[in-house]
Amino acid sequence: MTNNGAQPIEKVSIIISRGSLEGVYPGLIMANGARMEGIEASIFFTFFGLDAIIKKRMNNLKVATVGNPAMHMPTLLGALPGMSAFATLMMKKEIEKIDIPPVGEFLTMIHDAGGEIFGCRASVDMFHLKPTDFCEEVDGIISVGQFYEKAAGGQIIFT
Question: How far is CA 18 from CA 51, 72, 97, 109, 126, in A?
Fold first, then answer.
């Protein structure tokens, strides 16, 4: 028991559905933090979040500048050619400064620490992806029902 009487978290299942840098990193950071605290962790990548586990895309994720209110810029400015590339470069520099690894390396760290990594069967089928498209850290392509079975008894976090 913790000091406030709440039960400690023993298991988390994190859903990542966005394929942008700011959509993927929070889930990776949370999964890694969970493993470092001894908490069982699994990550379920769905829809465009699959980009983070596709070999050809995982280390080329971009920052979304259009329609992203957190960018604090007018949509028209975010749509200018090169703006997403510039924002991505700046974000990657800041990520590197605080010693957070690139997506591929981060996935390896999480997997090596015992975290499980899954792709969503429906999204994989919808995007016509093959098992060979994914990085080796992927433990399987599973259905939503299988995800819920694996998540049973733990916290589900949607980033």
Answer: 8, 20, 24, 21, 16
